[in-house]
Specification:
- With 466 residues, the protein is α+β, with helices and mostly antiparallel strands.
- The chain has one domain: Cytochrome P450 (Cytochrome p450, Orthogonal Bundle), CATH 1.10.630.
- The protein has 15 helices and 13 strands.
- The protein has a six-stranded mixed beta sheet with strand order 1-2-3-9-6-4.
- A hairpin with a 2-residue loop joins strand 7 and strand 8.
- The longest helix has 32 residues.
- The N and C termini lie far apart (63 Å).
Length: 466
């Protein structure tokens, strides 16, 4: 007779008065979350004085992600993020989301992504053509500039100079850090005080708003195009016929830029580090890109020959999911993992927590791209691998990001071997996204001096980030 496992619910120990588990979430978030499955499939913690339930079971996470009417966007993370991003696509409730996604989806169709790939190739060449043998640079910073330039030039069709890109990059780092701190350390009135950190956060928000407002004003004065900005300016509400306001458009553009560059850059940084630490993986990647590309810039037509490179990226996203935690809120009384939850209950789910459970991924701390080979994922429970979320709220740019990361990683590995400093160790930086922090790598050419050879981009030198 088969024994059916019973759902387990529990409560995490170590809560502080008023703060709950906020300090653990702030000081050691990955370790704290990884300990929670021992207490149950749904575990109560305190994010400040607010009880929040952490979803520790893959099937429960799948149900939560695919039933957006019952488990709507909300909770501590999204409540804080809405102060900057408004009710934009990732922040919108389920009623607003369906209309917004319909307006924006054409910008992420396969034919559009193929067109964006031309910009991706130009920017990859622009970056790698400046590298030289022996150059040591902060690759995390270089990749962040690269991905920010790609998303602004392709999806938004905005030509920005390096100074403007650097300014937006700095502001977004400050804002993302600020939102993360406000979600994890809910100190309420403290964030209204004119402290140095709070003033820095407010100024960064204002600078971002001004920059995006300028883009909208320019595009309203010069309409046309098929990019996301043009689509948003032409969108009209189905019921009222009213167009989006400038504030609505600004919120959508803010979140597209914010979500479209740092997460991708972080994944690529982790990939380059892990490849540098695993000679067998590096040899297979190099053999694949040599056979497929022969030193040239990767294009979407090459994706069929880059299967192992994509396995590497899927394994990186398993080990270090850039979007490592999000929150939801129940809209009605419901049951999840055997526990009855009243309407308005905050829930937290963590891709990092799910991706590191040994019952889902044996030996989860081992970097093994072959987990994703052939039929290796057929028995994987639903909700086990969620780097882009799930259901109809899954990241709208997931395919854009996967294509971009594959083209960037393949092209870099075809031309260069990127080597860390002797004795260097990985520093996982936990903020609103998971990143490496500064990642200094030295360029060594590959392919008999062919490394660094490019065929398209020609541009003035840019800082190497070292």
């Amino acid at each position: 007779m088969t024994t059916i496992p019973q759902p387990r619910t529990g409560e995490a120990p170590g809560a502080w008065p008023v703060l709950g588990h906020a300090w653990q979430l702030h000081s050691r978030p990955l370790e704290f979350l990884s300990e929670l499955p021992r207490y149950g499939d749904l575990v109560k913690i305190g994010m400040g004085p607010t009880p929040t339930y952490v979803v520790c079971q893959a099937e429960a996470a799948h149900r939560m992600l695919t039933d957006s009417r019952t488990f709507d966007k909300g909770g501590p993370f999204f409540d804080k993020a809405r102060t900057l991003f408004g009710s934009s696509l990732p922040m919108a409730g389920w009623r607003e989301h369906r209309w917004q996604r319909r307006q924006m989806q054409p910008a992420f169709q396969p034919d559009r992504i193929d067109a964006y790939a031309k910009v991706m190739g130009e920017e990859i060449d622009r970056l790698t053509s400046r590298w030289r043998p022996g150059l040591r640079q902060d690759m995390a910073a270089a990749l962040t500039r690269l991905t920010l330039r790609i998303v602004t030039r392709s999806v938004l069709a905005i030509e920005a100079d390096d100074e403007a890109v650097a300014d937006v990059q700095e502001c977004l780092h400050i804002v993302i850090d600020g939102i993360y701190q406000r979600a994890m350390l809910p100190l309420g009135p403290y964030y209204r005080l004119p402290t140095r950190g709070n003033r820095r956060y407010w100024r960064a928000c204002e600078r971002l708003h001004r920059a995006i407002d300028g883009i909208i004003a320019d595009r309203r004065a010069h309409p046309g195009g098929e990019d996301l900005v043009a689509m948003l300016l032409q969108a009209h509400d189905d019921d009222t016929g009213e167009p989006m306001t400038d504030v609505d458009v600004r919120d959508q553009l803010m979140v597209m830029i914010g979500a479209g560059f740092e997460t991708t850059a972080n994944t690529l940084s982790f990939a380059l580090w892990l490849i540098s630490q695993h000679a067998d993986v590096a040899a297979r990647v190099h053999a694949e890109v040599d056979a497929t590309l022969g030193g040239r810039t990767a294009t979407p037509a090459d994706l069929g020959g880059l299967t192992y490179t994509r396995q590497v990226l899927h394994e990186v996203m398993r080990m270090y999911p850039a979007g490592w935690f999000f929150t939801r809120v129940t809209t009605t009384e419901t049951t999840l993992a055997g526990h009855t939850l009243p309407a308005g209950t905050p829930l937290l789910y963590s891709a990092y927590l799910l991706h590191h459970q040994p019952e889902l991924f044996p030996d989860p701390e081992r970097f093994d791209p072959d987990r994703w080979a052939g039929k290796g994922t057929e028995g994987m429970p639903r909700g086990a691998h969620v780097p882009f979320g799930g259901g109809n709220r899954k990241c709208i740019g997931d395919q854009f990001a996967l294509v971009e990361m594959t083209l960037v990683l393949a092209t870099m590995c075809a031309r260069w071997k990127l080597v860390p400093d002797p004795g260097a160790t990985l520093n996982v930086k936990v903020r609103g996204t998971l990143g490496t922090g500064p990642l200094h790598l030295t360029c060594e050419p590959r392919g008999g001096g062919r490394g660094g050879g490019v065929t398209t981009a020609k541009a003035a030198p840019e800082p190497d980030g070292s």
